[in-house]
Amino acid sequence: QRQFKALNEPYLQVETPALTPIEIGKPIEVKYVIVNLTNTPVKLISQTGTIGISTTRFTESDLKEINQPAAQNIYITKDGTLLRKSGGIIVTKEYFDALNKRNHYVYLLQKINYQNTVTGKNRAYYFQIRLKYVEGNSMFPNNTFFEYVENLNYDL
Prior knowledge:
Helices cover 9% and strands 52% of the residues. It is mainly beta. Strands 3, 4, 5, 7, 8 and 9 form a six-stranded antiparallel sheet that branches.
């Protein structure tokens, strides 16, 4: 029973984030893919999030509604992916200078509420990643260094 549940409980994960080049006067954008790693299809219910430049991580109180096109009633099947883009902060000279310092990163925090289409149970995927644009370094796909700060799927 437990093994069956573990194999069939939906589990989402963000993959391949790509930070656009940082340029003064242009918005910061992060393109990323949400992947369903399990056999159970999910239906997206809602999405909240925030993006910003900081030396420290965000908290759940920083979450805001995201106006993603068709954020609701999207289904992600096994090995299915959903391409997303977050952004909107315009890079000022202050932001540009801050991002060139070692301890400043772009932080992306998202919470995606979704439904297990088999059981009807609602779950959430909560993740936070920190990113830095690293041009011309083959170690970083999409010229983007990233690491998970938080990466959780849980029942609501």
